[in-house]
Amino acid sequence: MAGHNHPSYLKIYIILVVLFAVSVIGPEVAPMFGAYAKAVVLLTAFGIAIWKAYLVCAYFMHLKFEKVYAPYILLACLSLLFVFFFGTATDAMFSNGHNWFKDLDEEAMVKEAEARSYVLNKDSHGDHGDHGHGAHDDHGDEDKAH
Amino acid sequence: MAEVAHAEVGHGDHHDDHHEQSFWSKYIFSTDHKIIGFQYMFTGMAMALIGGYFAYVFRMQLAFPGASIPFWGTLSPAAYNSLVTNHGTIMIFWVAMPVLIAAMGNFLIPLMIGCDDMVFPKVNRLSFQIFLLSAIVLIISFFVPGGGFGGAWTAYPPLSAKAEFNATPFGAPLWLIAVTLEIVAFLLGGINFITTTMNARAKGMKMYDIPIIVWMIVIASILFMCSVGPLVAGAVMLLFDQTMGTAFFDANAGGDPVLWQHLFWFFGHPEVYVVLLPAMGIVGEVTCTFARKKLFAYKLILYSSVGLGILSFFVWAHHQFISGVDPRATYLFTTTTLLISIPVAIIMFAYIATLYGGSIRFTTAMLFGLAFTGEFLLGGVTGIWLGSSGTDIYLHDTYFVLAHFHYTFVPIAIIATFAAIYYWFPKMFGRKMNETWGKIHFWGTIIPFNGIFIPLFILGAGGQHRRIYNYQNFPDLAGADMQDMRVFATVSLIIMLIFQLVFIVNFIVSLKRGEKAGKNPWKANTLEWITESPPPHGNFGATMPEVYRGPYEYSVEGREKDYWPQNEKPEPENR
Q1: Going from the N-terminus, what domains does chain B have, and what CATH number goes with each?
Q2: Which of A64, B26, B506, B561 has its Cβ near the most Cβ atoms within 10 Å?
């Protein structure tokens, strides 16, 4: 095998086509499985997608025949994708604004102000200097409500 | 350049004699890694002049607001924004990156690991050509209507996304295109560095025999490859926002401006380490050679750099503590930010431990290397306040931040680069640079450098915000004492820039009239010093070197000479 260790690409291709067929048919027939329908959809759609991705990376991208650091670099990039996603999700997943608000959207501003108003009302006779900060810190859950 | 004819060398199809190549094919469309390294280095140095000139102009405006500036004229607010933006962009993307990684990587990696060229010479040439194109696009952007991009080098939307905010309708897209092209260029270069180091090492060179700078450049290239994707994606999205009316970062249309900050800094913070690691590698080589001692804790330095690289992907949001990121995330990012100082400190202490008990030679290169260690420590220590989310609320976007990252970036991009140039100049051009003028240049650089940024620390702690055109409009910041410090910083900058002329003259004169260096002027061990200076095409002549030991065997007991080149056979009398 040394020197000439390429697999049969046609064989891999046929396997990929079969897997593709399974991933199309799987979700179609999933309702037949009743309570397990969700699991069947996940397995046939996503499970097989991962398997197919592995086959493409390993054989068509030659990672199986590369030195060991090449797949490691790919895995590192893949894991960074998750790092980036989870680092950003808390801010970017809220299309209505989570920690910022649309300052030209008056209706939203009014709602925002109302949602925060309990802080303002609590000591409306006191010193007004700190209200900006206090309101900003405490608004986390109210935003999700509207 | 090299007088030796080496037509007998069997190095592929490029072994024709130097005299037969035209200037065009030898210097402009060369695939020789050394020439490509020089191309990167000289382009980077030319861009450094532009960046330095920009710094001079806007520092003059800050010190003497509204006055007519020599060699510029009166500075308008829009032009001020443009200068500040492009100073930052140029110094990071077109000076630090090409000189530290591309120039040093191209020149040193094949020489230090003992092979005749990069494994993909034409990819290498393409890399420089794209880089040159990116530099040209950036320079063109200064002359389009509205001038160069004026939305700060971090290009935060909404300022960067709409021409009515940044006032540079053509400069902004051109800036984004230039940055994207520049990134493509360095990806191509990085592929070469990694592959060459992994596959083309000299016979006998094991992983732990690779000089530390080569390791650092490889790790930096991997960091760059892993981090750059989000920025390219973000740059294209921002370009669409600017030119095609999309709203990826427009809050009024459902976009998210903070998302850009994530995309930018996910690249931007590893980028700091992308340029830091090669600088540390340079300083490691220089320190070792001139302390005549084995590098302290080679493996620990190597593992620390890898750890540094991994950790650098978990710290990016410390740039965004006050831009409205989730407060829960700030705990996490404060912790990781403070953690990342540990590997940096390990490497720094290893360099200091290398000095301990050595017989130190204070050449110019060594002085710059030592200055890097000292000044970078100052930059790192001031980062502690900025990394903790509590103190950052006060210090964010003040001149304290500015002084902090200049205390890290100037040692990286200027001081370490000078160390490298003074150290490898004999190998690059066959002659030494003048040491006396080198030392004058050293003190003329280091003292004004501190003169610029120490006042800026004080001003920043006093509340002076960044990116302000004229502080006279702010009663709290317009006091005579604060203005005096601004003038002091500006005068220091002018002195520092004037002393760079010493370097330029020394460089040019030494090219022609410097003392002949010979093969190994510094008595160093690594493989680049065993070949001619400058190295011929193909680097090592007919026989490629074979490696028998690590790169830092200095002052080994029982040996007559205090150095032990990597290629020297263990028992010469046996053969």
Answers
A1: 38-536+559-567 (1.20.210.10)
A2: B506
